[in-house]
Amino acid sequence: EAGVAQSPRYKIIEKRQSVAFWCNPISGHATLYWYQQILGQGPKLLIQFQNNGVVDDSQLPKDRFSAERLKGVDSTLKIQPAKLEDSAVYLCASSPRRTEAFFGQGTRLTVV
Amino acid sequence: AQSVTQLGSHVSVSEGALVLLRCNYSSSVPPYLFWYVQYPNQGLQLLLKYTSAATLVKGINGFEAEFKKSETSFHLTKPSAHMSDAAEYFCAVSGPSGGYNKLIFGAGTRLAVHP
Questions:
Q1: Which residue of B lies nearest to A48 if distances are taken between CA atoms?
Q2: Rg (CA), chain B
Q3: Residues of chain A with C-beta less than 8 angstroms from the C-beta of B105
Q4: I need a surface site. Which of A16, A78, B13, B67 has the fewest CB within 10 A?
Q5: pLDDT per position in chain B (115 positions), as tens?
């Protein structure tokens, strides 16, 4: 079974630029998550999708972050414009109903 | 709101020694609990999970954890540490108040194993 795929693995941008991350979850998983992991901290949930719909985006900085899940499968997370404090690893995960989440390898973003 | 607290951001053990990583949860109703491991530049990998069945849960790589409701704890143990166990370990919770599909993570414990 293929795992959660994320791209790119690494990205370096200047502040105020925009960036997008892509995630392809495990086939058949209805729930998709984006987490932000700042160095030395645990992952923080940014947004949770159930199929096409958003279940929780309470911690998503909506003035600069946006996310969508196309046809209930792939998802993109965008930051525009980026700030220095957005430097982090962005983790995508997917889950069947009421079980553990399966994580991708993450995208390491450095904002300079 | 549900949360987990991991006691000790860094733990160091000798190879062959007992590993004990501590996790306490906050929830009015017994939640689901998880331990994940993260190796450098990798995503998170599930070690084990508690979902209201047996209170002693065995996971991969020789790890196990015991759910203790009276202590609101879910500590992770391994009888004998290997060098390959060096990594970051995260405790996570999901459950009735936040939703069983919403994982809340602790701050993590970095495990170092020395010869």
A1: B102
A2: 14
A3: 35, 42-44
A4: A16
A5: 778 999 999 999 999 999 999 999 987 777 889 999 999 888 899 999 998 778 899 999 999 999 999 999 999 999 999 999 999 999 999 876 666 668 889 999 999 999 9
